[in-house]
Queue: 2 jobs
Job 1
Amino acid sequence: MSENPQESQRPDPYAALRYPEFRSYVAMRFLLTFAYQIQAVVIGWHIYQLTRDPLSLGLIGLAEAIPAISVSLYGGYVADKSDKKKMLVWIIAAMTFCSFILFLVTMEQTILPIPKGWVISIIYGMILLIGIARGFFSPTAFSLMAQIVPKAIYPNSSTWNSSSWQVASIVGPAAGGLLYGFSGVTACFLVIVLFMLASLASVFFFLKNKPPQFIPKENIYQSLAEGIRFVFKSKMILGALSLDMFSVFFGGAVALMPIFAHDILKVGAEGLGIMRAAPAAGAVITMFLMARYSPMGRPWRNLLFAITGFGLSIIAFGLSRNFYLTLLILFFEGCFDSVSVVIRSTILQLLTPDEMRGRVAAVNSMFIGSSNEIGAFESGLTAKLMGSVPSVLFGGTMTLVVVSITWLKTKRLVPLSLKEIHPH
């Protein structure tokens, strides 16, 4: 019996998952993100409990962003010229070590009791080291994914890769808040270490070695400059990175969630975990819808719509005084953000040459990855100066301003389809 031609032409929503190495890669990403999200909730809540200072929440972001930005370009260069599997093993092992140190210093009963000031300093120190590891992780993971699946299914692999991150971002914050509320900070860090070890195993046992596709013929500075020039010559890539960077920078309200949970909504650590999970819940539902209904028909138009919705959600979050309304708003914030993530990552995968993926991903990491943490610092600083609620309203409003300016400067990109952006 012959196959129905209409069915054979229909996109396979599970195309990327049919590759065993991609499934292992997704497992690694899920487990590491799950542990990282628990850690983000636990550190934020614990630091605020120790200091009661909004600025201390912003400093968490800054402590991670500065080293991540500082090493990311070099990390991209190293990722391009190194075995990707070996790189990931070292990176995840380093992050696991940092979490183990946090487990030790937060134990209530230790052989040598550590003063509170020292505990805070060590926590910030481990965040700084994790930031260095992240500067290497993003370009390595990005370039590895391109070696696991064929170019024809990059859009599908981007959707599933983002979905694994978003699912972990639902379960992780909720688990972190509940674990902290019922078991304490030390139990949280024990769970974090165990899941990071499982992530390490996913790479070590199930991925093949991935030799470099780039052999540098010039010195490191010329090589890095080549990657930067490529990004700045591609208006679509530069526009997507700039738009996302500024919207994330001004929309860093997530850093202030401990304040909203503790002082405004009064829902405790458990409520904070649910609040952190709500955006990711919206994101993952949207991700599964996008696996079947791609947003890439008019990617630039849809990107502008998505970030506009994100900015409006931030403003609504700042105005809400009802816990359940806040959860609904955060849910929609996650929906809009996930559309932005998939469009940006697909554009980046399609337009970047194989031999330059690490360096371009490093530039992306500088634009986007660290803008989350710098945005957290901006939110903490403005909350200290003008109050928590005005800080969030200011951030949402500035996001809308950024979208408006971007639309005015990129009108010619709005009607373009994916085939017009990337004909092949």
Job 2
Amino acid sequence: MRITRIDLREIRLELISAFETSFGRTTSRRIILVQVFDEAGECGWGECTAPEGPFFSHEFVDGAWEVLERFLIPMVLGRTVDAASEIGELMTRVRGHGMARGGLEAACWDLDARRRGMPLWKLVGGHNPEIACGVSIGIQPSVAVLLEKVELELAAGYRRIKLKIKPGLEREIAESARSRFPSATISVDANSAYRLEDIALIQALDDLQLLMIEQPLDADDLVDHATLQREIRTPLCLDESITSASQARRALDLGACRIINIKLGRVGGFAEAKAIHDGCQARGVPVWCGGMLESGIGRAHNIALSTLPGFTLPGDVSASRRYWQRDIIHPEVRVSPQGTITAPENPGLGFEIDSDYVEQVTGRRLSRST
């Protein structure tokens, strides 16, 4: 397929309720959507998951837009490839900026699947069309409010509850949830809020039968995570620290974690995500799909990724209505009462883009063609 045109547009969506983590509070999302076109006019869609500010990582919306416009689009536009799996190789000169690269690469995978008349999840190599779903619950104004939200999500069928924590609140949050819901599958996520000197705070969670403790230490750290993992029984899961298959291999070699969270944007797209998945599967290490408050387009890509056989833990792929009054796809992503999502059988993403609504919420746009 030959890439003859690439469009960017920035949309803005308001969250139903604020989402708070250890590094900030989000009430709305500015999202870059990527469209790629082939010589026949067929179109594929991707989403750049960069947040508004450079806090989760160095990437943010305005920076990603510039990287796409100045560097990545010229590397891909006009090029001919046999398959979307080759797109990532065209962008290897750019260091980092996985979310920008991942949004463009994902759009090419959608285009490739549409051209072949097959669902994206099958093109990716998925085997499990019914995926287990979990939810991520941000820091709440009180424990009582938090427990109400956990109860609602469990009643909706979600199979894993992830609680955001930060220093000074970790034990209260996790212990309250475990006491109220003794049989629930619960994990916690620190988003790099702790230091190795805080080891006692993390060790205090060891008796709560948590599924995992996600990314407690610095995003660029593996060594201290390995030290921490030796001092606690609960499995550590790495998120921000895992930016490539080689970094995942190093983390596992060092013993820095026992579980890995794979995010398409953070690792630069499907090709790298699949390489991480394959490496973990060969070593018997479970993986799961993390979320970045995506619109329906990014959510659909996450569904496809989650059908790979190594994704044995419930991911952050939840229903559209948890976040948006109106999503930009139809039908919206829905979760069954059993806490599962079934990957669609239609070609590509398997969802239709709500073009009228996308147009309504679009701010800036850019189009480049051969």
